């Protein structure tokens, strides 16, 4: 048995997205059938990103398991002969059996393309959103700047989304124009359902002058889908790449006007412990932030998470559950005191730790 990783590119025009649907053919379905036919055994792929109907990809990632002896790096060549012209596997390679693309930290990068001219261009109709109204790219850049960083993007996701946690981190968001083509390029830790398309639709409203750039911050603060602009057409969106984390990030800092924290993971690999130092946090965001960041540390390999709330409000309760976790108040030893002072950089505060 071996596990094989695929990098998949596709034109999403004729497909109902990645994930198998009852109402039409999907990328996942086509790959499953082609691989089953090639390897002479039932194959089911697992994708890293479930792109929507009509969305394109230059680098989605999928994995599957097989007992076939065909070398993993040769599978892509044989598979491409059985795939339609609008789907190609760019690379195939063997990975460890425990490798799962959805369980690894990664940076996802999307591009949204807008054709901004008076008359549409037929050769670009399948891969760009056409907008005849002149867009002010400089104002779009100003609006985009408010979205960079860690924020609650509830205003920028479809209401029927099933996820409970709507906080995401945007590492970069650029808006550039070459000739008549405007490209919105966005990289982040992950994206909510329709998030990139709603961001694109909102920035187009800014470019049209419907919203001033600073209104984007007000939309974020509203945490209400009705506050944001329309969802832009799927055909303008392309998943560019997924860059998986090769080394665990030792310090993660999250800061905006509502919260500020440091998650220190220098001892996760060696000691299976992490330290969360909460500098400040608005009361209504505290519990969600605590659960979210502790869960991130556990997902990264921590078995114990030490937590310090430096606002001194005693908001962590020891007699209740926080999601999957609960806490006990610690008595800090001199050795621990020295270690935590070096980490926190402040005078001592009460520490809590997750129960084993």
How does the helix and strand content classify structurally? alpha+beta
CATH class of the largest domain, named: Alpha Beta
| Topology-level CATH name of the largest domain | Alpha-Beta Plaits
The rough form would be described as flat
The rounded Rg comes to 23 Å
State the helix count: 8
Brief write-up:
With 356 residues, this protein is α+β, with helices and mostly antiparallel strands. The chain contains eight helices and 16 strands.
Defining key terms:
Alpha-Beta Plaits; six-stranded mixed sheet; 3 domains; single chain; 24% helix; alpha+beta; 356 residues; ten-stranded mixed sheet
Task: Characterize the structure shown.
This protein is of the alpha+beta class and 356 residues long. The protein has three domains: 2-102, 2-Layer Sandwich (Alpha-Beta Plaits), CATH 3.30.70.580; 106-242, Pseudouridine synthase I, catalytic domain, C-terminal subdomain (Alpha-Beta Plaits), CATH 3.30.70.660; 251-354, no CATH class. It has eight helices and 16 strands. Strands 1, 2, 3, 4, 5, 6, 7, 8, 9 and 10 form a ten-stranded mixed beta sheet that branches. It has a six-stranded mixed beta sheet with strand order 11-12-13-14-16-15, sandwiched between helices. Helix 3 crosses helix 4. The longest helix has 17 residues, at 283-299. It is flat, with a radius of gyration of 23 Å. The protein starts with a strand and ends with a strand. The model has no long low-confidence stretch (mean pLDDT 92).
């Amino acid at each position: 048995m071996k596990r094989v990783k695929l990098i998949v590119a596709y034109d999403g025009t004729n497909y109902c997205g990645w994930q198998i649907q009852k109402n039409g053919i999907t990328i996942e379905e086509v790959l499953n059938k082609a691989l089953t036919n090639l390897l002479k055994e039932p194959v089911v792929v697992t994708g890293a990103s479930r792109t929507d109907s009509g969305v394109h990809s230059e680098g989605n990632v999928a994995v599957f398991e097989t007992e076939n002896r065909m070398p993993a790096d040769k599978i892509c060549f044989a598979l491409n002969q059985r795939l339609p012209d609008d789907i190609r596997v760019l690379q195939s390679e063997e990975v460890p059996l425990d490798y799962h693309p959805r369980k690894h930290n990664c940076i996802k990068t999307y591009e949204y393309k807008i054709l901004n001219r008076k008359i549409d261009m037929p050769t670009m109709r399948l891969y760009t959103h056409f907008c005849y109204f002149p867009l002010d790219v400089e104002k779009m850049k100003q609006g985009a700047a408010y979205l960079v960083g860690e924020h609650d993007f509830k205003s920028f996701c479809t209401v029927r989304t099933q996820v409970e946690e709507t906080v995401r981190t945007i590492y970069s968001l650029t808006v550039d124009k070459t000739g008549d083509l405007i490209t919105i390029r966005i990289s982040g830790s992950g994206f909510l359902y329709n998030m990139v398309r709603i961001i694109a639709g909102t920035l187009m409203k800014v470019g049209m002058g419907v919203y001033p750039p600073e209104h984007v911050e007000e939309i974020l603060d509203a945490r209400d889908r009705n506050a944001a602009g329309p969802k832009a057409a799927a055909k303008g969106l392309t998943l560019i790449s997924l860059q998986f984390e090769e080394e665990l990030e030792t310090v993660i800092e999250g800061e905006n006007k509502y919260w500020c924290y440091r998650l220190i993971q220098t001892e996760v690999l060696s000691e299976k412990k992490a330290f969360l130092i909460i500098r400040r946090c608005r009361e209504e965001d505290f519990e969600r932030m605590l659960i979210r960041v502790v869960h991130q540390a556990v997902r990264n390999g921590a078995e114990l998470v030490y937590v310090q709330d430096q606002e001194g409000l005693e908001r962590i309760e020891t007699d209740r559950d926080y999601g999957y976790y609960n806490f006990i108040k610690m008595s800090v030893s001199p050795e621990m005191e020295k270690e935590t002072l070096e980490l926190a950089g402040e005078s001592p505060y009460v520490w809590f730790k997750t129960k084993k």
